[in-house]
Amino acid sequence: MAQVSRILVLVILSLAIASAYGKKKKDQPVVTYDGRSLIINGTRELLFSGSIHYPRSTPSMWPDLIKQAKQGGLNVIQTYVFWNIHEPVQGQFNFEGNYDLVKFIKMIGDNGMWVTLRIGPYIEAEWNLGGFPYWLKEVPNITFRSSNEPFKYHMKKYSEMVINLVKKEKLFADQGGPIIMAQIENEYNNVQLAYKEAGKDYVKWAADMAVGLYNGVPWVMCKQKDAPPTVISTCNGRQCGDTFPGPNGPDKPSLWTENWTAQYRVFGDSPSQRAAEDIAFAVARFFARNGTLNNYYMFHGGTNFGRTSSSFVTTRYYDEAPLDEYGLKREPKFGHLKDLHRALRLIKKPLLWGAPIVQKISQDLEITTYEKAGSNICGAFLTNNNTREPATINFRGVDYYLPPKSISILPDCKTVVYNTQTVVAQHSSRNFVVSKKAKITKWEMFKESIPSPHDLEIKSKSPKELYQFTRDTSDYAWYSTRINLDRRDLPMRPDILPVLQIASLGHALLAFVNGEYVGFGHGSNVEKSHVFKKPINLKMGDNEISILAMTVGLPNSGAFMEKRFAGPRVITLEGLMSGTLDLTHNYWGQQVGVAGEKMQLFTEEGSKKAKWVALNSTPSPVTWYKAYFDAPEGDNPVAIRMTSMAKGMVWVNGQSIGRYWVSYLSPLGSPTQEE
């Protein structure tokens, strides 16, 4: 390393305990399709795709991620377009740095690969508000994802902006670029019934709008069984070879837009795994059953930097993908799928030009043959669907051994070149090594003051709803009220204490009484609402109750996302001599964010605004911690292990690398994410 740099780390604690694309042929669209496959430059193609999301990695990582995807046998990379990072403020656009969509697409094309562009604009993706910018929620009379005029106006305006940007850079295939397919909407069938007729109208409108804006490449709608004739309905899931009935039209090919390589995690979850053998079986089965495109979701999950993840979703995303969070190969998953792609390429001709014949040997055993009459083009898939017992299949006079739950691929109807259960790829493990250079020898801290009602400028009779109050500008909001008690209100017995109860719609909160920390409470991804109950000490005279309410991302799925709520709703004091006292309408002072955010303590310049003191042995809530360290040796990925912390956010050199919550343990007794 030519130069050692100094790196600033800050943490806020909430609780401290082949050429792939080419020029358009004259008078012929570059990308067409029929019931068998996509046809690119006049040639049928088998497409092996993987999702890599540009904002979940850094531009310096993109070249290696793309090259490794190609090395793994992929010829397509799929990505969403993320509305809320590109237009965080209405009319103000950002396509720089991690958000440089055009650079990312061009880089894929330069590597001889194709692109599927999922415009959305609703993307889900475990992304904050499903990709919608918060300002859209505030448009008068809007209903997301429905035949609602305000929503359709903004959806079309945004979609047109993205398409025009891509057209200007000539990135569509019929312009000579790498984009061979685009997607509008996303898994709408999951919520369509909630909108009744307005849902049906919206699906047709969205398809017509997309095709009307650009018809040079095919459009898809995933998990949309009633997709209009102009778009292709596709499958998402783990076993589309068995669960997908096929597209809703004889002239549409079978495409698998999301094959989940594991499962995203939320805070409080135990680890998620999916075996390479299971993925390989599912992919082989899909291609054996007329499939011609498989997309791994994710091929590289990456990192939910900053506050981009949706409710309770961890900062690490799909770490069990073939390329892990850091872009390292996860073996044998990467290698086993690479071998599968090689085998499927060998059987490409029979698959695309042969006629399928399915021979059912028994309930679990099956032979699928693709053969072209009058030629030597023949390929076969031998399937054993029994999860426990191996089997032998006699095919054309030869016995073939099949391990349990496996498929053998015979590209010439004679020779087995691949079995989904037989792994020959190497195995690997990821190990974190403590850096010798990046030593942190001195921590400093800055404690936030606990505000009283008069410190908070915004006043209202009851606590403001948290989403609307913060407007997605911070995870935090203060609420504080004052109550005067006399001797007759307080319990007479010393062994009885009043209880503070806070019924919250989520996601988490810290409570303080007279500036003293009382406790921490939180919901979960399944049940965000929770009730906080703690005994407290009160005094005669004025008492101040302060609450630091928190969100952990905004919702990303379900119907009527614009009508979700969070934050404290009912606050009571129980156990007083005068009975239960409802403080909900007691008049509250309120503030969005904590002071350190406004001071930008996470930057070098902003950190000078605070008086830092040496770290002591008694951690306290709502505290900033700062340290410097030298850049680590080598050029391997770098992580920060957070096991001594609780909940908060981490910045490095002014950049937020995401939330952490290591105090939220899984049922296995360990944090969902430690690094």
UniProtKB/TrEMBL annotation:
Q: What is this protein called?
A: Beta-galactosidase
* EC number(s) recorded for this UniProt protein: 3.2.1.23
Q: Taxonomic lineage per UniProt?
A: Eukaryota, Viridiplantae, Streptophyta, Embryophyta, Tracheophyta
Q: Where is the Beta-galactosidase beta-sandwich domain?
A: 367-423
Q: Which UniProt keywords apply?
A: Glycosidase, Hydrolase, Signal
Per UniProt, residues of the Beta-galactosidase galactose-binding domain are 623-670
Which stretch is the leader sequence?
1-22
What family is this protein classified in? Belongs to the glycosyl hydrolase 35 family.
The scientific name of the source species is: Rehmannia glutinosa (Chinese foxglove)
Q: Where is the Glycoside hydrolase 35 catalytic domain?
A: 37-343
- Catalysed reaction, written as an equation: Hydrolysis of terminal non-reducing beta-D-galactose residues in beta-D-galactosides
